[in-house]
Amino acid sequence: MRILALVFKRLLEGISLGLLVLLAVIVVLAVVYRTFGMSLIWYDELASVLLAWLTYFGAALAALKRAHLGFTGILTSSPLFTRKVMFWFSEVCVYAFVLVCAYAGWYVLSVFGNESLVSLPIPLSVTQSVVPIGFVLFAIAQLASTRSAYEDLVLQTTPKEDFHT
Length: 165
Description:
It contains six helices and no strands. It has helices at residues 2-35, 43-64, 72-76, 80-112, 124-127, 130-155. It is elongated. It is an all-alpha fold. The protein starts with a helix and ends in a 10-residue tail after the last helix.
């Protein structure tokens, strides 16, 4: 499981890095064009979409590293039984929220029909598919890091290096 989590981590890092580089190139290119009095009519729309995709993939990577907002001070200062109960309660809440959002994102895709971006012939269902994809990736990342996070919490150790580097 740890090897799969490491492969998943590298995949998310690679995709996030690729999206970040592509976004930076497009924005710099647009600035250069504007400097010379020309304008790329499509760059702002595409940059917004790339930023959304980067955000969702980055959120999944943060979930894998357990780097989202948490209250670990409360958990680690509690008795062992309370830590276990709070941990599993929070896991159930996160999974429920993520799965509801993934379903809602999937449902919304059907609403778009044949609509596309204004400046490019890219269907909205493609650009907005990041919502269900991102939440499914988040759920996978959460699942892949649950065992390690549980062991760390129960044993009150520091996070494992393979997930938090």
